[in-house]
Amino acid sequence: MKSLLLAGVIALTSAIPAAAELIKVPSQKSVSASLDALEAALAKAGATVFARVDHAGGAAKVDLELNDSQLLVFGNPKLGTPAMQSDLRAGLFLPLKVLAYKDDDGQVWLTYEDPAEMFSGLDIAADAPFVAKMTGALGKLTAAAAE
């Protein structure tokens, strides 16, 4: 019985992908201003913004408190399509997302998943050109937005 239970636990944990590494970029701006700047940088880069989610606003609507936090969902088919051509399951992680939030100390952060880590476990080579482009773009865009 113990070996059956152990086998079940191993099977379950191996089916759950590990959490991707989170990249955190400090911002001197407010959450809203940080994402406004990110949206402007994305527009210049030719990316499409699909959604902006105000988590704190949603919490307030049900009389709950949450530090200021907003999520920006965006993408560029020139980068995302090759990822999905390599492995359609990449669509679970695309479009890309950046979370802007204020921590308990008042610091605002722009946070996103490292694309190489995000796609690990899929049939996508870590050194695929589109992974490097996504990584570089996220780094440059979030740095510009945080300035």
TrEMBL record:
Sorted alphabetically, which keywords does the UniProt record give? Signal
Does this entry carry the keyword Signal? yes
Specify the DUF302 domain's residue ranges: 53-115
Q: Where is the signal peptide?
A: 1-20
- Entry annotated with the keyword Oxidoreductase: no
Q: What Gene3D superfamilies would the database entry show?
A: TT1751-like domain
The record's section on Pfam families has: DUF302
* InterPro entries cross-referenced by the UniProt entry: DUF302, TT1751-like_sf
What name has this protein been given in UniProt? Uncharacterized conserved protein, DUF302 family
